[in-house]
Structure formats: structure tokens, C-alpha cells
Structure to design on (127 residues):
């Protein structure tokens, strides 16, 4: 028997996350907030808050949830500007100067780089 509405399952569907570098260009698409947090060395809570706009940036990156009305293609990697993506989503967000975001990333790597490595051994050169 099928029920309409909410499922009784406690499993939540993953929320895809777009990652933009300090230059505000799309650099990665993640299948979930969890995988994004693991790769970037941040927490899921930080990724979530940055996606919602509570943080302008986090750890030197800009994070966005994949909007259901916007289609992202492989060709968008390394080409799609953050400002254009926000415009397509109807979002108005604030942006920090690129040099400031780059400095946040460098400070994050100096402070946490040795502690927050992904468990499968990817290096900082992954980005």
C-alpha cells in the first residue's frame, strides 16, 4: 500500500551542494552536505549555514544548495560564476572581496589543514 505525503523513513534524501572557490567560480558539485564537509574539512553545520546564507563564506569557499529549477552541467565546472548562479536562483547574497576569501582559506588550511584531512587521503591539491 502506498501512502501520499511524508515517508515514515527516518532517512533524509541528500542535499546536493555546489562549491565555489574564492574567485567565485564553480569548482565542485557534491552529492551531499556530508561529503562536502568531509572534502572541505568543515562541519556539516557550517556547510548548511553557508548554503542558507547565514555565513557569506566558510573556510574560504562559498557554498550553495542545488536549486531544483537550475540545471548544472559538467561544462559549468570552472566556468559558472557565483553571481550568475545566485541570479538564476533568484537569490540576493553578499560577497566578500576575493582577496579576503582567499586569506580565509589560507588561514583555515594553516589552522586545520593537518587535522581535518578526508579519511580516504585526498590532498589539498584536490581543489
Amino acid at each position: 500500500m502506498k501512502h501520499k505525503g511524508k515517508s515514515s523513513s527516518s532517512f533524509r534524501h541528500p542535499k546536493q551542494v555546489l562549491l565555489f572557490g574564492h574567485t567565485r567560480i564553480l569548482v565542485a558539485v557534491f552529492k551531499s552536505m556530508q561529503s562536502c564537509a568531509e572534502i572541505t574539512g568543515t562541519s556539516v553545520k557550517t556547510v548548511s549555514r553557508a548554503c542558507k546564507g547565514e555565513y557569506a563564506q566558510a573556510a574560504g569557499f562559498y557554498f550553495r544548495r542545488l536549486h531544483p529549477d537550475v540545471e548544472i552541467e559538467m561544462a559549468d565546472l570552472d566556468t559558472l560564476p557565483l553571481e550568475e548562479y545566485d541570479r538564476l536562483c533568484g537569490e540576493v547574497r553578499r560577497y566578500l572581496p576575493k582577496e579576503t576569501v582567499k586569506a580565509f582559506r589560507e588561514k583555515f588550511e594553516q589552522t586545520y589543514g593537518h587535522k581535518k584531512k578526508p579519511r580516504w587521503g585526498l590532498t589539498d591539491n584536490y581543489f
Q: What stands out?
A: The CA atoms of residues 48 and 54 lie 9 Å apart. The two ends are 47 Å apart (CA to CA). Residues 120-127 have pLDDT under 50 and may be disordered. The first strand starts at residue 17 and ends at 20.
